[in-house]
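Notes to self after the Tuesday call (sharing in case useful).
The group wants a holo model before anyone commits to mutagenesis around the pocket. I volunteered. Ligand is calcium ion. Logging inputs and output together so the record is complete.
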Amino acid sequence: MKPKHPLSWLLLIALFSCDTKSSPDAERVPDISIQISGREIASGEGYDFGSVEVDTEQEVIVSLRNTGSENLELTGNPPAAIGGADASHFAIPSQPASSISPGSSRDFAVVFAPLGLGAKTAALSVVSNDPDEGVFTVTLRGIGSGPDLTSVDDFAYQLQNISLTALAGSAFDLAVIDYSREGDDETRFTAGEVSAVKHGSGGEKRVLAYMSIGEAEDYRFYWDSRWDKNHDGNPDPGAPSWLGPGNPEWEGNYKVKYWRPEWQAVIFGSAASYLDKIMAAGFDGVYLDIIDAYEYWGPGGESGLNRQSAEREMVDFVKAIAHYARVTKGKPGFAVFPQNGEGLSAHADYVQTVTGIGKEDTWYNDNVRQSSSYTAEVIGNLDVFKAAGKLVLVVDYVTQKSKIDDFYAQAEARGYVPYATVRDLDRLTINAGHEPD
Ligand SMILES: [Ca+2]
Ligand SMILES: [Ca+2]
Ligand SMILES: [Ca+2]
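Result:
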């Protein structure tokens, strides 16, 4: 207080002051002062971390200063505590020392690591022997945001002959690859290898693992060679009853009754499941193939089974996969991209669940232009995903320059992300004039 103030003012302030600093006749007391990120903050104020992507974290330095004249003793256990409903989204990795001498300070970090989407609020509290700020609280706020895919404007799709070095050195924002070099479990990519692609010299990228959920593949870890000993595409006696006939157009692939719990258990739900292997390797998400199996088994489909519930069961299967990864396994930002089956745009819950969609052969079937009515119908469905803020990846297997150019122009005009490559998906195609950046 400045001495020129009249005595009545001083008395009033002494009576109502909340801070010993402002007491005219300060006793020898400790006095706590807190700065967050260099900004002085009063007890009861808040600190906002802003928007932080789930599965990542943001750290802020909190500085505890003793501006008093006696030792400040932090009497809580731990000295700095986080409480409240969303406390699990915040952390203090390393606690400050519990005694701070006059004039000195202690720094510690507070981390916001959102485990889910949406606004999170918690309270940081420091209990001490400060006479008038014995419980110093700061309201911590932050928002868990979904994976930011808005910057993805190029992607690569390759399932065979993968060179992780070439991929890591490329500038693609997103890559869809197999989880394994040879497709089997022995040659699956390690977490270190996947991480090297994600953070490679060509720039940061999202890496999704291909996983077929509508057909079984005879080179995968779950396959038993006795299921079709003579490789004629007809399951042999003793094969699981969920296993359907071979796909005549893709040798070694077999239709599956994907709604059956035995098949779904192969795909997700235990440490031995396909999805768990993919997640253990640190992939950012999955790229799910043969979604359109619901057409094969459903009414009027090739199988002749005419299963009425087939479409709904595929929606539920994809949702269950997403729920398992994001909730059960605690990876809320895990990306889920179904490939094809775009007619499922009719299911709002499905559109809501997926991170985006991949679509093959929208404008061209190899180098042959699709009918305009077909393309228009596909686009109508893809636009539903686009309008919901989802990323639309389109891959056409065009190899002629003028058609590649046309494909890129058409796709980009709709706000989709295009990739032209070969149908065998066995090379990292870089298209002249459409290089990733
Ligand atoms: Ca004080
Ligand atoms: Ca057979
Ligand atoms: Ca880019």
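Two things stood out.
DSSP finds ten helices and 26 strands in the chain.
The CA atoms of residues 218 and 225 lie 8 Å apart.
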